[in-house]
Write a structure and sequence with these properties.
alpha/beta; Rossmann fold; Arc Repressor Mutant, subunit A; 2 domains; 13% strand
C-alpha cells in the first residue's frame, strides 16, 4: 500500500504516525490537518488507498469525515478516536465501513490493523484486475461472435467459414482477432445497414 493520507490536527501525533507508517510499511504518506484539506486531496488523488484520521480534527470530530471517505472514495478508512467515544459510535462506523481504533493503543495493534487493510487492498486490486481481464475477454468473444453472425447473415457463410475468414483477415492485417472482427463489423455495417 503506497497511497496513504493521514489527517491529524495534532502535530506530535502526525509525526508519530508518519514515522510509524514509513518504518513499518515503506510508504510516503501525505499529511493534512483538516477534513477540508483531506477532501481537496482526495478529489485530486482518487487512487488513495487508506485514510487514517486522528480524531478530533480542527474543523470537525472526524466521524463525519470518516463516513465521507467510505461513501465517496474507494479508500479504506481507519479512525483513531478516544476509547469511550469509539464504543458509542462503533455501530454507526461499522455500517459505514470505517475501522475504529480506540485511543490509547499500542503500535502492535495499529500495525496489525494497517497490515490487515494492506492485505485486503492487495487482494481487492488483484481481484479487480482479474475481473477486468475476464470482462475484456468476454467483450472480445462477443465482438468475434457478432462478426461471425454478420458474415453468416450477409455473406451466407457457415459458422466455420466465418470463423476461418476472421482468422485469415486478422493474420493478413496483423491484428488481434477482436480488432479484425471490429473492422469486419464496420465494413458489413457500411454495406448492409
Amino acid at each position: 500500500m503506497e497511497k496513504i493520507l493521514v489527517v491529524s490536527s495534532n502535530k506530535t501525533a502526525s509525526e508519530t504516525l508518519l514515522d510509524f507508517l514509513r518504518g513499518s510499511f515503506k510508504c510516503t504518506p501525505k499529511i493534512v490537518e483538516s477534513a477540508y484539506q483531506a477532501k481537496v486531496h482526495l478529489n485530486s488523488d482518487v487512487l488513495t488507498e487508506l485514510v487514517m484520521i486522528n480524531s478530533p480534527l480542527m474543523d470537525e470530530s472526524g466521524v463525519e469525515f470518516a463516513e465521507y471517505v467510505t461513501e465517496n472514495t474507494t479508500a479504506n478508512c481507519i479512525l483513531l478516536i478516544k476509547a469511550e467515544t469509539a464504543e458509542k459510535i462503533s455501530e454507526r462506523a461499522e455500517k459505514a465501513g470505517v475501522i475504529i481504533v480506540g485511543k490509547p493503543f499500542s503500535k502492535a495493534i495499529l500495525y496489525q490493523i494497517v497490515r490487515t487493510v494492506d492485505i485486503a487492498v492487495s487482494r481487492s486490486v488483484e481481484l479487480y484486475l482479474r475481473n477486468a481481464r475476464l470482462e475484456e475477454k468476454i467483450n472480445e468473444i462477443q465482438t468475434i461472435d457478432k462478426a461471425k453472425f454478420m458474415l453468416m447473415e450477409y455473406k451466407s457463410m457457415t459458422e466455420s467459414e466465418a470463423h476461418a475468414y476472421i482468422e485469415q483477415y486478422a493474420m493478413n492485417k496483423r491484428k488481434k482477432k477482436s480488432i479484425a472482427a471490429l473492422a469486419i463489423i464496420d465494413k458489413l455495417s457500411e454495406q448492409y445497414l
